[in-house]
Amino acid sequence: MNRFLWLGLLVVAIFLVGCPINPPDTENTNITIEDIEGEWDFSNVKINGQVYNPVHVSILPAAHGDSPYQNGVDITIGDSSYYWSDGDFDDNVYRGEYTYGVKDDQGNIHQYDEPQDIEITFSLIDGKLKMKVQAGNPLGSFTIELFEGGENQENEGESPALTPAQYSQVEGNWKFTNVWIPNQPEEVCFSFFTTCTLNVEPYIDQYTYIETMHLTGVDNHGYTCNYDGQIVGAGGVIYQYDYYYSIKNADKSPIAESTLPKTITVKFFLTEDGKLFVEFDSEGQLDPSPLDGVMLTYGEKQA
User: Fold this and answer.
1) Residue 214 pLDDT more than 60?
2) What is the pTM of this model?
3) CA-angle at 40, arms to 35 and 42, nearest 5°
4) Tens-digit pLDDT profile for residues 50-67
5) I need a labelling partner for 154 at 20 to 30 A (CA). Which of 202, 224, 245, 299 fits?
6) Around Cβ 248, how many Cβ atoms within 10 Å?
């Protein structure tokens, strides 16, 4: 009897050893920018001995402005530090240069344009983003990843599930934060909005129905930027948007204005909890307009 009992226990032990209850996640480094392009959010990130919440990372399909690089990676740390970089991807490794800005107590962003080297190695762990940053000061070097053992999931990079939406589903006023406008006219270079507002509202009178859309914000230069236009065509949930832009300084003197409409493709997306994402794309056009490559994320609908 004892011999059979020990034999049974041995079989159970072998089974348990061979079939772990919680197999470890595998780190995937065989990735390119196509696998990770988009917006990623982290929380409780430790950088240079301090914990920041939140940290937002934008992995961009194009560099800012007329940069000689192909891509961009922007990092927002907390609500007052902004790091903007242009670089190139070699598989999962990104190398380039960054500049940064710091927001003061009055909400003004002080920009520092002396470029510093940056290298970021990206990987995915069970679909969650990990990034190892090596950079000159003030950004420094750090790694954003799962806590050891993967028990604390608060530090995972999440790319939210997005559902394509129609114009009628996103009507209203929406507030966005931390928005890049990389292809501004050369008089402006590029713009960064800590907050901006998108108005999606049809114009209706006795004879007319026009699906209009207006984006406005004050950028890091103190310029008021307006992009006003209308939907001129649609294919399912992909819209063609004609717009004019007007950029003025604090004295309301014009810095740059368009005289002819710019045409761009617009796509709307909603998250499960009702946040709005808007993607602008003028792919294939010889002269990219200011909104080309802009992605508005996590828009909050205003009352």
Assistant:
1) yes
2) 0.63
3) 135
4) 888 778 888 888 887 778
5) 299
6) 15
